[in-house]
Amino acid sequence: MPLLADLDQATGLPVRRQRPVRYERAVPGELVHLDIKKLGRIPDGGGHRKLGRTVGKRNNHKQGRGYAFLHHAVDDHSRLAYSEIHTDERKDTVIGFWGRARAFFADAGIEVRSVMTDNGSAYRSNDFTAALGTVDHLWTGPYRPQTNGKVERFNRTLAAEWAYAHTYQSDEARAATYPGWLHTYNHHRPHFGIGGQTPAARVHNLTGNYS
């Protein structure tokens, strides 16, 4: 058990000591990381991670569910995250997601100046380039996912604190909790990478508007 001094009083989550940051953009919107996380869908009745392989495999054999594709946009400076669950990672889905993500950041008073992605086919398309407009497009280095480390950290957090944190009886049951978890992540969960602040605390006026 961690000491009380090592816990955030509001949430009860452990607060880890801040490590040196390799790089961090100076203001919100200067760089937004885009990524797609492929996540196995939970079969009806529950999956093997919580119920064991025997029960989980039996449920999955009854009705294989395939994968969900979580599309993310994470601001480099504040770690503010926008995310949606989709059934694919095709170009049209990526472009639609980008438009809504950009509007989300605009509502928070953030003008996105550049985005960073991997070399996925949807991100390389001319249509996605057109959708970016005047927003600069940066690329991760080949075989260097750490270049997009802010969103990779977000993926690890959601896996530990949402995707596999509870026993869900179906994929729909898990998906229904995602908006609430995102709100907690943005507005209430301390982030050791930004000195124990919440992402919303680093965005002007956001905490007051979205308590």
Describe the structure.
The protein has 211 residues and is of the alpha/beta class. It has nine helices and five strands, in the order E-H-H-E-E-H-E-H-H-E-H-H-H-H. A five-stranded mixed β-sheet has the order 3-2-1-4-5, with helices on both faces. A hairpin with a 5-residue loop joins strand 2 and strand 3 (81-86). Helix 3 (91-107) packs parallel to helix 5 (126-132). The chain starts with 31 loop residues before the first strand and ends with a helix.
The general outline is globular
Strand content: 15-25%
Radius of gyration: 18 Å
Helix content: 25-40%
Average pLDDT reading? 83
Structure class: alpha/beta
Q: Span from first to last CA?
A: 30 Å
Number of helices: 9
Main attributes of the structure:
5 strands, globular, alpha/beta, 211 residues, 15% strand
Task: Give the helix/strand layout.
Elements: E1 32-40, H1 48-51, H2 53-62, E2 67-75, E3 81-86, H3 91-107, E4 114-117, H4 121-124, H5 126-132, E5 136-139, H6 149-163, H7 171-176, H8 178-187, H9 206-209
Parallel strand pairs: 1-4, 4-5
Antiparallel strand pairs: 1-2, 2-3
Helix pairs in contact: 3-5
Quick recap:
It is built from 9 helices and 5 strands, in the order βααββαβααβαααα. The chain is of the alpha/beta class. The chain has a 5-stranded mixed beta sheet, sandwiched between helices.
